[in-house]
Amino acid sequence: MKNTLRSLAFAALAVAVESASAHPDPIEPEASGTSVPAFFLAQAGPPRATQPAANPAPRHRVTIGIEGDQRVIRSNGWPDHEPGAFPRKGNPNTARPQEYTFRVSTNPKAAATPERRGGWFFAVALNGVPFEASTAETWNNDRSSGWRYEAATGFLDLGLDEHHAHVQPTGAYHYHALPTGLVERLGGDDQKMLLVAWAADGFPIYTATGLTDPQNLASPLRKIKPGYRLKTGARPASTGGPGGSYDGRFTEDWEYAAGSGDLDECNGRVGVTPEFPGGTYHYYITAEFPFIPRQWRGTPDQSFAKNEGPPPGARAGGQGGPPPFGGADGRPPGPPIITALDGNGDGEIDTAEINAAAAALRRLDRNGDGKLTPEEWRPTGPRGGPPGEGSPRGPR
Ligand SMILES: [Zn+2]
Questions:
Q1: How many beta carbons lie within 10 A of that of residue 7, not counting itself?
Q2: If 202 and its partner were Cys, which of 108, 272, 288, 289 is the partner (CB 3.0–4.6 Å)?
């Protein structure tokens, strides 16, 4: 039965999954009405209990020092708080320690225009864990479509834990929004502006607690608001777009509106901070989109470019025989229909999963119109690439 189902599905769908070997975030639509996205849980209530890891957790390691005119952050990328359990629903990857050496200028300068780059970490937290905002998930699995799914707006379950983090195929644990556990370990941001990270251009990053008067350290604190808003109206469907109303699921659903918030398009502003009483440009991690900045005000350092090949021992598609249905350990995810049917991700579609097939298929119905269109069931094609986090890369 399993082989029949598999070959049927693969044949019928004319699968092309080979190019997704570096893909971090399998599409797994949130089951409508059955669960609350992790992001909102973490915002609204106490952290969920985390399951103990199967193996002893690696030890957190980070050093931050000044070398010449550079701030150097060396870390193994393992957080100083307990990460969520991975793999998990929405994220098939196993967190592993990394070897990072990030360098930023101690005297950063604003550039003439903001800059964004795909395939780069945006910043590194004080605990040595990097930030990356973009996902590799695109509409129709077509990165040329210009429509990229958001990780933290609550529409797509990419397995973010209570720290708004999950894991790339390299094993790199990384934040998509507020690093909740780090903020707690730093004493919280109730009473002060809280420095939590260094951006790749050298400017500091704070939580959303900021000064009412950005030029006065003694002014009262308040929540800082980003300057982005949802576009109005509907997405263009006739021109090859996903259609539907702008609801926040795509990065492109959002637009910057100068003056609508406290911050510029880089989610930052100039002002004084506890660490820089003379004033500096600085970023904020906001509670609403864009959460973490999407573009740099200054020039990012090359050390934030991601150039890893597959991790040691990672199985790429085609090596060592065909994977069951793909998805784990950075393997190419299987076709969406198989992934949906294989509820427990064990590579088999058992009796219970067959009985639950109708409900599973309904979860693929992203626009909720009661039917599955090709863009909803189409198997994985080329994915990733700028500005996402999972652009396919061969070993180097
Ligand atoms: Zn991610």
A1: 10
A2: 108
What is the 136 CA–ligand 1 centroid distance (Å)?
A: 8
Q: What is the pLDDT of residue 137?
A: 87
Sheet strands (E) in 276-388: 280-285
**Across the strands, what pairs with 183?**
none
Question: In angstroms, what is the span from residue 47 Cα to ligand 1's centroid?
Answer: 20
Distance between Cα 258 and ligand 1 center (Å):
28
Q: How much distance in Å is there from the Cα of 302 to the middle of ligand 1?
A: 20
- Average pLDDT for residues 199-228, to the nearest whole number? 98
Cα separations (Å) of 320 from 7, 179, 323, 327?
A: 19, 38, 8, 15
Task: Say which residue, 271 or 374, is predicted with more confidence.
Answer: 271
Q: Report CA(269)–ligand 1 centroid distance (Å).
A: 25
CB-based contacts of 170, cutoff 8 Å, min separation 6? 96, 98, 308, 310, 311, 314, 330
Indicate if the pLDDT at residue 313 is higher than 60.
no
Using 50, 70 and 90 to split pLDDT, how confident is the model at 72?
Answer: very high
CA–CA distance, 171 with 87 (Å, rounded to integer): 10
Helix H segments across 164-243?
Answer: 180-185
Q: In sequence order, what E strands does the chain have? A: 62-67, 70-75, 100-105, 123-125, 130-131, 165-167, 173-175, 195-199, 204-207, 209-211, 221-223, 228-230, 254-256, 268-271, 280-285
Cα of 24 from ligand 1 centre, angstroms: 7
Q: What integer is the mean pLDDT of 305-318?
A: 50
pLDDT, one tens digit per residue, over 341-390 is 655 444 556 655 566 677 666 656 655 566 676 666 664 333 333 333 43
DSSP line for 250-272: BGGGEEE-TTSSSS-TTSEEEE-
pLDDT reported for residue 134: 86
Tokens of 91: 């994220």
Q: What is the DSSP letter of 374?
A: H
- Mean pLDDT lowest among 47-51, 102-106, 231-235, 329-333: 329-333
CA 304 to ligand 1 center in whole angstroms: 15
CA of 23 to the centre of ligand 1 (A): 10
* Distance in angstroms (rounded) separating the CA atoms of residues 121 and 6: 37
**Ligand 1 centre from 221 Cα, in Å?**
31
Q: Give the model confidence (pLDDT) of 321-336 as tens digits.
A: 222 232 332 333 455 6
User: In terms of pLDDT, which residue wins out, 165 or 54?
Assistant: 165
